[in-house]
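job 3f2a | input accepted
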Amino acid sequence: MEITLKGDMDIENIPSLKQKALRINLNEHIYGTFAEIGAGQETVRQFFRAGGASRTIAKSMSAYDKDFSDSIYGIESDKRYVTEARLRKMLNYEMSLIEERITREKHPDKLFFAFANTVATIDFAKKYKGHGWVGIKYQIEPEQDYNDIILHLRFKENDARLQQETLGILGTNLVYGAFYKYNEPKKLLRYLYDHLDKHQLEIDTINFSGPIFENVDNRLMSLQLVKNGMTDAVMFDPDGQNVLPARALYKKNILALRGSFRPVTKVNMDMFQKSYEMFLKENRVDENNTQTLFEITLSNLRAEGEIDEQDFMDRADLLCSLGQTVMISNFQEYYKLVEYFSQYTKARLGLAMGVNNLVDIFDEKYYRHLSGGILEAFGKLFFKDLKVYLYPMIDKATGKLITSENLKVHPRMKELYKFFKYNGKVTDIEDYDPETLNIFSREVLEKIASGKRGWSNMLPEGIADLIKDYRMFGFTRKPIVMGKKKAKNR
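job 3f2a | predicted structure (490 res):
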């Protein structure tokens, strides 16, 4: 028997929630469990209401009481319930029950699935808007290894009932997309917002795994989240695994370095290393409670026009090979980045940057959209527990070294700059490597693409070999040209 799942309804209009749920219910092969904790049984409700659910839903449950939930899924080491670990336990447990209770001899063509969510909706005081983990573990062929789609969401609505309804819509979209859009994961991401608006929820982490997603790079899926406006920032670790920003940044000291990293150069790494050493010497900065990250903005990725995914992956791979955590953000202005960090921590923050970046910060044109202009932006930027670590540069015209003491900002900004400079918000990196000051990423990139020599020694150890081996940034090996004499003899 052929079991067909590929392909969506070729209609211009988005299928209604009832149509989506009914299509799942009427597929005689799809069969599984819904386990929902914390916001009612909003997803399974859509499937019960659509009709024909008896052939699809093996069981629905909601273990609301913590003790009862612990007795089913076990106790988490951190005693928390709204976590990825909890969600995975729920999915694995419910799937094991299906396999235990439903025999393949009797149901050889069934496609098993387990859908689960663990959620905290808005609190009574409306101080915390709530968040949750949602996922599905499923097959698209009988007896195939299972595939997982797991995501984290943040609610934006200010009413618990509305959040519950939003969760039910998202869950329905996820189940439908998992079965009918798995072969187009980028579209599957966009369809998660069918019948939803981005002011209702934010999806800030998603991971695909399993045999049907073996060619999916979750870093590219993270990029899509930012590109589609589903979230403002995503992070992945040196292993290339997506990480939840809230978990990575919570109550941490944070040191960030923004750049194009196209490619990462010795000056980038010297700036990072020297600023990191200075950051660790600050009061209340504990190395064991410090998160460092290299940040690339979406506008930077679009600098050459439309985002080149391979170019993005090349930059990310090189940074990860150096053991760095990478953030992709939609924060063109630095104050927005600092505001984002401040959602998760009140600890000390540090920004490492070059002279040109600091001069740009004091350019009024970036703040015309704010009612309070540059003063409003600086109130958000510098009145946090923040320090800028400034890497010097050589003025090509004069050959003079430019530091925080002699850099030039717009005359109207001169006194404002002095205020922050002499209040300790800007400090020079003095123990820099003078040999790196003449290294610029754009010049390295031009040399790589044009086949010129001399770029390898401008990069950290091992980076040039990776660029050559994987033909990054337009690198091509020049053919060996024989001398005239040898060529003639041939």
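job 3f2a | Confidence is low (pLDDT under 50) at residues 6-12, 479-490.
job 3f2a | closed
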